[in-house]
């Protein structure tokens, strides 16, 4: 198999690590993700990962219940570092060299984020896990993923989800929801399609970063995406007039 990308950024939600238990970290899920990433890494692809902290706490949800938004977001960033460390452990158990870089300084457990250092790790074949979001409140991990992908000059952002692509409405609520095979940045923003926040989509658009939204729960899907097979939804261009 031949990879279509040389360097990519994989965006994982924290909720994905919880599996069916809803919260916390499910070791079986973590191990499964590591094995899927191993297949891609084995093709010689430079892999970076941004992971959220929603299985522990979501800042925007905590804020909606009365917590100060900045404090809630910083707690979410710390939760993402916990998840990054757990993912690092799972990857290294599968004999993949990794480095965790964080936007928050926690030097006892991770390296501080430095763009050139991250690129150097990737060039040496190490998987780089970005924790701590952007390091600033009021920014989502989707935006952190788009930002880091642009900074390291990734070829694409792969957004791993629990659904098989982007729909024009919620497929769980609307049996007639239409799934897109391809989608323009402009249409995604104009129709407020909620597979990513709009700031992240706009940042990818500005830097011409393709986004692939796919179902991570299907074994082998990430490998198919990396090898250029038609899986999920690709957002990678603008229509005339966008």
Structural topology:
Elements: E1 7-12, H1 14-18, H2 27-41, E2 46-51, H3 59-64, H4 69-93, E3 98-102, E4 111-112, H5 115-123, E5 127-131, H6 141-151, E6 156-161, E7 166-167, E8 179-180, E9 182-184, H7 185-190, H8 198-206, E10 211-215, H9 221-226, E11 233-237
Parallel strand pairs: 1-2, 1-6, 2-5, 3-4, 3-5, 6-10, 9-11
Antiparallel strand pairs: 7-8, 10-11
Helix pairs in contact: 2-4, 6-8
Could you characterize the architecture of this molecule?
The chain has 9 helices and 11 strands. With 242 residues, it is α/β, with parallel strands linked by helices. It has one domain: 3-Layer(aba) Sandwich (Carbamate kinase). It has a 9-stranded mixed sheet with strand order 4-3-5-2-1-6-10-11-9, sandwiched between helices. The longest helix is centred in the middle third of the chain and has 25 residues, at 69-93. It is globular and about 50 Å long.
What's the level 1 CATH class? Alpha Beta
How much of the sequence is in beta strands? 15-25%
Going by helix content, strand content and strand pairing, the class is alpha/beta
Alpha carbon gyration radius: 17 Å
| Helix coverage percent | 25-40%
Count up the domains.
1
Please trace the helix and strand order, writing H or E for each element. Answer: EHHEHHEEHEHEEEEHHEHE
- Write down the overall geometry: globular
Low-confidence stretches: none
Tally of helical segments: 9
Distance between termini? 36 Å
- Main sheet summary: 9 strands, mixed
Provide the CATH topology. Answer: Carbamate kinase
How would you state the average pLDDT, rounded? 93
Number of strands: 11
CATH architecture descriptor: 3-Layer(aba) Sandwich
Instruction: State the CATH superfamily name.
Output: Acetylglutamate kinase-like
